[in-house]
Amino acid sequence: FVSAEESYRRAIAAAHSAKALRLEGIALLGCAVLQRKWGRLSEASSYLADAEARFRLVSDPVFSARALVQRGHLLLASDKVHAAEEAYLGAHDAAELHDDVECELESTMGLVRAAVRKDPHLAARRIDMMDLLLRRSDDPAWAERVAELRAESMKVQQPETIPLALRRDGRSFELFSRTIDFTRRGPLRRILVALARSHNEDPARALS
């Protein structure tokens, strides 16, 4: 990362000297990404603001959208989920308008990570959107990234397992270190035992 950061800084200086605003913006954007990956969110935000300013000066909608994705990443890292989603959606719309598949994928990935925090089912639908976008991408690395993202989102969707110790006859069970007595609750006891046996035989089967 250190050598990459130094390379970006040299590129920034060279582009600035040549008054090549677009190239300067691209180098600033690269520095912003590095700082974010290092966890230096304040520095990343500063580099990003400078990059956004350069792209506005040259009226570059493509890199403005890519910068907006990075803005979304910074907002999400600061737990500003709603603002991050707004940034990702804006970037996605611009990327779609200019046929920038890379940016569409990156912004949708951000939308998935934002949705995982509040609505795992929405995250799954957004991953399905990424599967469609993959058909338009010629970068094989994206398929692996989407597969990893799907696996991460599935882990989040898995409910926490709560251990329950049930006696064979169903007369009592233990939950959270507390014993519940079902000795005088015959019908409920029989239902509980039937549920436990059904779950052991076939966890996916419904009990009629």
Give a verbal description of the structure.
- This protein has 208 residues and is mostly helical.
- 71% of the residues lie in helices and 5% in strands.
- The chain has helices at residues 2-17, 21-37, 41-57, 61-77, 81-97, 101-116, 120-134, 141-157, 186-201, and strands spanning 164-166, 172-175, 178-181.
- The protein has a 3-stranded antiparallel beta sheet with strand order 1-2-3, covered by helices on one side.
- α1 runs antiparallel to α2 (21-37) and α4 packs antiparallel against α5 (81-97).
- The longest helix is centred in the first third of the chain and has 17 residues, at 21-37.
- The protein is elongated, with a radius of gyration of 26 Å.
- The chain starts with a helix and ends in a 7-residue tail after the last helix.
